Structure of Nitrate reductase:
Amino acid sequence: MSTVTTARQAEPGKQSHVFPPSPPQSEKAESETMSTTEEDDVEIPLPPPSEPPTKVLDIDANTPDNHVPRDPRMIRLTGVHPFNTEAPLTTLYDQGFLTPPKLFYVRNHGHVPQVLDHEIPSWKVSIEGLVENPITLTFTQILEEFEQVTIPITMVCAGNRRKEQNMVRKSQGFSWGAAALSTSLWTGPMLADVIERAKPMKKAQFLCMEGADQLPNGKYGTSIRLSWVQNRERGIMLAHKQNGEPLTPDHGRPIRVVIPGQIGGRSVKWLTRIILSDKPSDNWYHKYDNRVLPTMVTPEMSKKDDKWWNDERYAIYDLSVNSAIVYPQNDETLSLGETCPEFYRFRGYAYSGGMRRITRVELSLDKGNTWELADIDYPEDRYRETERELYGGRLDMASRDVCYCWCFWQLPIAVNRLVNAEDVVLRAMDESMTIQPRDMYWSVLGMMHNAWFRIAIRKDSDGMLRFEHPTVPMAQPKGWMDRVKKEGGDFANGNWGEKVKGQVDDSAEMPEPVKKVKMTNDEAKRIIEIEELRAHDNKDEPWFVVSGEVYDGTPFLKEHPGGAVSIISAAGQDVTDEFVGIHSESACEMMPKYHIGTLSPAAREALLNSSLAPDTSAPTETFLNPRAWRPSTFIAKKQVSWDSRIFTFALDSETQRLGLPVGQHLMIRLKDANGKTIVRPYTPLSTDAKKGVVDILIKVYFDDEKTGTKGGEMTLALDALPLGQKLEFKGPLGKFTYLGGGQFSLDGNPRTAKSMAMVCGGSGITPIFAVLRAVMEDPQDPTTCFVLDGNRQEADILCREELDELHKANPSKMQLVHTLTAPTHSWTGRTGRIDKGLVEEAAKGTDLWLVCGPPGMEKSVREILTGMGVQAENMVFF
Ligand SMILES: Nc1nc2c(c(=O)[nH]1)N[C@H]1C(S)=C(S)[C@@H](COP(=O)(O)O)O[C@H]1N2
Ligand SMILES: [Mo]
């Protein structure tokens, strides 16, 4: 514990919750009130100086609220009007336990009713419905004929923290940060006393209320249970003073309802009517607002079927347990230099609903594996120690053992532990042992978000820790949720969307483990000299070399899945690297058939020397050479998601084009850190019209430490490649070329297609996309395309924006279907693998199938197509 004490002393930040925080009271007679109880020297929390704004802001001048003075610090979440605002989180917190009205969050569904001073005494509140004695009380009566109490109550909008939900999936609600809550001392009569006057009938069960604000769907109204009102322990009251001052226009001037422990939406402002009923309120705002519909109900479902809104089980009353970290604030930094304190004191708020007390607040530095208890301070308790007059009401907490207010927590954490943590998560528990959940419960209205509050810790290169809040309302920088989203992270990945070290996409095209397969024929004992090999450097009888062994490709020219070109371009060459790089075990098993002999040592040497010869040829119009590896410099890398990047490589000159026909691919060769040569085929993202550079989209397959699965050799090597490094390209390769206007060539034969189906998965999109783009970007091209793209999760969809754009621009030429095997609940598209049903959907009018994806996917699509009677000549597998 001694370290903790040190930490508190070391921490220079100000103590914002020392009470009483603010001796200077605003003008009025309150000081008198206090002096009458001088014998009672218990210190209670009193509000900070109020200094109410007197000026109508320019921004409000042209709105119906041009009569309401406001504080410019309030953050407007729904534009200029209506006024839905919260204070910056730290500003709110720094006020202490009680929030001045001008910084108290505001939720106005419409304009603020204008009530002039002289109209207030005669303001009327009617009590009607199932009462024996319907009455209308004036404001003056309510003040004078009922006992007045003063109670501290925290109000919270059901939408508090909604921005976090909206980041995951847009809800039908605007983006509150974590400051849609505030606390004040409220003065007025208990609503139970007022109701009694009207003599409720036995069958009255609900208390409906209505405000004076005229809204698009009628007046604002809602209801609560009458029994709750009658239970004085629940503290449900009418209030005409907030922190000792008459209500401000935004908070319900001249009178409102205040309900402890329940969402703010039930506390009607500008109160005019109370109706007792045997049914809940039929007000539009009661029915269509402040509800948590089941998570699987989509906005469309809720629109179609009114039953979701008529179900009282989904209406929110009690608040739920919730908490937030305030300090460190978003983008706060901590430099780790010599001046760095040993401890950083984390601080924030917590609250629960139904008047339940927060009984523990816990923080974790290891994503919830282990937790530490924070200190909790309950300023509300200080009011229980005294009974006195305050603001013209009896301070009425001494006999109450329930909790109406927020509390504060703090925990000093050793900075060296923060250095080693990726984040800090927070959760609170209340006295019903209800604990905040780890995961979000998303619903149509985006309400009651109370999952663990998480702060990400980033390590800046200059030796600083930088803290990120999940979201920040209307401000920059926007917090980790925005960052994760931009990185393409999936919030449902179990790690708040952050990259999980070693995470592997199970539908990925992982390179198959290369087993040693014997490729030679023991009968082929011929020794071949370099002259003989060179004599077969032609397209009629192409010989090629793999690992010093010579093969005759002639019998395989027709059958080679990569087309004759790939064999012809290998003629007379040592193609060991690319052969090993791209061929499967079963391909290797076929090789003994074509083995004709072994190169002599001299021939080996000659071949090696010729391939090492510097490329001195004059600059050509296009970069690629099908018969030579061409060097290129890695000049730029752009991160498009946590595992995908666009690599840019320089061509020989700024005016040179790559020279890759649409539909063909190229090969990349490089040496990894261990000196091992790796070769893989790729289709660039940039078009062949691009000069000077080539862009290649690469999805990196990381090692999976958990399962011990190795990542992608090539993609990991590329990812580790330093800028300025050279690697090599060779190509073009491929049996398919799209010529434009529906014309293509397959295995050298010119043909045409009216309609193409493009089936792909993972990074298989890249060759497909090249063809699709050629079709879609040419307005003269009448070909139609059906794109069927299968992935694991939404974040794995490559070229998504590009696809959407092509689709948008060509609604009649292009159909686009995404399907996910592991979607999150926010996904509304197709789910499951690419199966027969989907393939059949794509088959309408299709005369050419282009397929590219992981081996498993290609295999099953081939089976489906064959089963459907599609001829092999109409299928292209890349
Ligand atoms: N008449 C009326 N009462 C109302 C509202 C409203 O728009 N009109 N908004 C409700 C909602 S949703 C909330 S959260 C609280 C907000 O109270 P505040 O603006 O004083 O913070 O008022 C509630 N009472
Ligand atoms: Mo609200």
User: Anything to note?
Assistant: Residues 527-609 form a domain with the Flavocytochrome B2; Chain A, domain 1 fold (CATH 3.10.120.10). The two ends are 65 Å apart (CA to CA). The mean pLDDT is 89.
